[in-house]
């Protein structure tokens, strides 16, 4: 993605000196103000200069790591890998690898450009040097598919590093949660057994959450050792995040990014390379937020992007049925799901919506209509 303009324009500098001198001035080039932390894909790697470009910013690399124990070098980085970059260290940028999946390739269909990792069938034209049995890191963004919330693969990188081989990790949207069987589905197809897992921060698992799971593949089941719910809620100031818009409210006062977190749009939100009218599902953006409020949103020039056809929204008005035990209700003959990101307004909740005429906004994920905002209908 292109560079975000977070720059301060230096004032005019007088070139004349002494009495009667020339008062003409020439502008100085803008000075780039980089965010202290970014999450996004690598645009370019320059091993000779020891720099990488992420979200349009160039960083001198001080360290590269995966997790807390596995160290890499800049030689291991490739274009389109997902990373988090921190500039808090004076010696240079600290780069943390943020793959969507880590695991062993179990099947490849080169004719269809598909392969299987961690029980998920992914579409991507693999490098000819990647074979069945290789350990890879997969970087992707969420994409709505017929089967559910899947992945648009950005890069697949083969690793023989001892810190990677033998590790399994997968991120995705949690669905089909069965708290009795201690199981759920991650993404569109990965079956997870979390009966022996540690749930980070003792979080309550809910359908719709974006979670990161580490463990081992056991046949067609991912046996989780750790489950962590991931959001953007804890991000400090000066964090810039790249991603795809996965829901927008009708009045464009808030939006969801990467099916993982929600941001508010206010009168102080600045727009680059587009306007508020361009804030639609499926559009790729970079957002800088403060306490959940989008301070700046930059668009790609192509507002349809690669995701425009996969993300669809719905809006219904009517009298909903009573919410069932599986957190669904019917409105205008359509079954609608409530999940972790469903927001109730006007004093509504899942226990009382059946008593009111409401407006429901949401997104279509596979065959499921998932509510994002439920409010009373205006009289």
Structure description:
The protein has 379 residues and is mainly beta. Among the domains are: 91 residues, OB fold (Dihydrolipoamide Acetyltransferase, E2P) (Beta Barrel), CATH 2.40.50; 61 residues, OB fold (Dihydrolipoamide Acetyltransferase, E2P) (Beta Barrel); 65 residues, OB fold (Dihydrolipoamide Acetyltransferase, E2P). The protein is 0% helix and 51% strand. The protein is built from no helices and 33 strands. The strands form five sheets. Strands 28, 29, 30, 31, 32 and 33 form a six-stranded mixed β-sheet that branches. It is globular, with a radius of gyration of 23 Å.
Map the helices and strands.
Elements: E1 7-8, E2 13-14, E3 25-26, E4 31-32, E5 37-46, E6 51-54, E7 57-66, E8 70-72, E9 82-86, E10 93-97, E11 101-109, E12 114-117, E13 120-123, E14 135-145, E15 148-159, E16 168-178, E17 183-186, E18 190-193, E19 198-199, E20 210-218, E21 221-229, E22 239-248, E23 254-257, E24 261-264, E25 270-272, E26 284-290, E27 293-299, E28 312-318, E29 328-331, E30 334-337, E31 343-344, E32 358-365, E33 368-376
Apparent shape: globular
Helix vs. strand class: mainly beta
Helix content: under 10%
Ends apart, CA distance between termini = 44 Å
What is the CATH fold-level name of the domain at 7-97? OB fold (Dihydrolipoamide Acetyltransferase, E2P)
Classify the beta-strand content into a percent band: over 45%
What is the alpha-carbon Rg in Å? 23 Å
The name of the CATH architecture of the domain at 7-97 is Beta Barrel
Low-confidence stretches: 1-24
Oligomeric state: single chain
Structure annotation, total helices: 0
């Amino acid at each position: 993605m292109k560079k975000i303009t977070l720059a301060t324009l230096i004032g005019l500098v007088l070139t004349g000196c002494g009495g009667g001198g020339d008062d003409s001035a020439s502008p100085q080039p803008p000075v780039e103000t980089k965010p202290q932390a970014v999450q996004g894909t690598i645009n370019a790697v320059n091993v000779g200069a020891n720099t990488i470009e992420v979200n349009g910013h160039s960083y001198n690399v001080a360290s590269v790591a995966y997790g807390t124990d596995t160290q890499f070098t800049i030689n291991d980085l490739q274009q389109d890998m997902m990373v988090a970059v921190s500039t808090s260290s004076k010696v240079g940028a600290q780069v943390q690898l943020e793959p969507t999946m880590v695991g062993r390739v179990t099947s490849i269909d080169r004719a269809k450009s598909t392969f299987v990792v961690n029980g998920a069938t992914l579409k991507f034209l693999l490098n000819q040097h990647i074979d069945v049995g290789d350990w890879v890191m997969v970087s992707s963004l969420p994409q709505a598919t017929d089967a559910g919330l899947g992945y648009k693969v950005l890069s697949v990188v083969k690793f023989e590093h001892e810190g990677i081989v033998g590790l399994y990790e997968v991120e995705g949207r949690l669905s089909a949660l069965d708290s009795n069987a201690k199981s759920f589905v991650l993404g569109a197809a990965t079956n997870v057994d979390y009966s022996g897992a540690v749930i980070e921060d003792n979080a309550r698992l809910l359908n719709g959450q974006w979670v990161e799971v580490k463990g081992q593949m056991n046949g067609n089941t991912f046996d989780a050792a750790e489950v962590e719910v991931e959001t953007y809620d804890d991000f400090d100031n000066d964090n810039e995040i790249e991603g795809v818009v996965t829901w927008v409210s009708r009045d464009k006062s808030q939006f969801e990014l990467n099916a993982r977190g929600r941001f508010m749009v206010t009168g102080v939100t600045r727009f680059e390379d587009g306007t508020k009218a361009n804030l639609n599902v499926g559009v790729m953006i970079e957002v800088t937020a403060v306490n959940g409020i989008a301070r700046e949103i930059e668009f790609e020039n192509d507002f349809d992007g690669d995701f425009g056809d996969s993300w669809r929204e719905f809006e219904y008005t009517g009298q909903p049925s009573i919410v069932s035990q599986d957190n669904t209700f019917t409105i205008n003959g359509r079954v609608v799901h409530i999940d972790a990101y469903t927001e109730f307004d006007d004093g509504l909740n899942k226990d009382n919506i059946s008593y009111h005429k409401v407006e429901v906004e949401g997104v279509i994920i596979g065959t499921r209509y998932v509510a994002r905002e439920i409010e009373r209908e205006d009289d």
